[in-house]
Amino acid sequence: MSNGKGAGVSGGETMAASGGGGGGATYRGFATMYLRMPMSSSTLPVQGQCTVDDRRVTLKFPFTGIEFDLPGQPRENRNEYDFTIRSTKGDMTMTIGYVSELRAFTGTGRMDVGGAGGGGGGGDRDDHDDTPVLTFCFYAADSPLNRLPTL
User: Fold this and answer.
1) Which domain does 45 fall in, by range?
2) Residue that wins the pLDDT comparison between 32 and 1
């Protein structure tokens, strides 16, 4: 469900995050989506790309993509913070952090426990699965990670 500040997931699914500031930096990076295998506890990692324009995060994977807004613009040396994005399949708690040695931001998405349809736990760390559904990293042009080859 979108609340006007939300985001879209290709294939018709929408995700929303609470909004905030504005203003303009662009970052690029990489992302991994972890698909759960049926009848198994295994996950299959799918590599993708990450871009951030102002507050808008776009994660592109083969055959799908996810977009959502950060609560505010990325800021270097900020402490790790959590926020929730909502979709028809439930809530996901996103954690964003900063690694100063690499001048890069890291993100992790974990599905909230509570079933489909948004019955999650409202972002409480004890209310979600510890297995990430998404991980991503994004960085500015002056980061040492910018020297890595792109996919």
Assistant:
1) 7-140
2) 32
